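Internal tracking record. Fields below are filled automatically when a chain is submitted to the structure queue. Please do not edit lines marked as system-generated. If the sequence contains nonstandard residues, flag them in the REMARKS field before resubmitting.
Queue: standard
Priority: normal
Entity type: single polypeptide chain
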Amino acid sequence: MPEGEIPDFSECKLLATTKPQRELSVAEGRSVCLFTDEGRMALATLDSVDTETGIVDITVKVWEKVA
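SYSTEM-GENERATED OUTPUT FOLLOWS
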């Protein structure tokens, strides 16, 4: 996702199903849509990276599984 864009459930699902990737590089401030191991849709945003310590802050939103 472009920096600052926050997709809703439908947009995330469309991206994750039409443009799947096994590996990717996510820059600070960017988000990625993914499926959890339980089949739920999730949006993970890389908030910050401390290059000295290797500590990363990530915000994750997980939607309920649609039956």
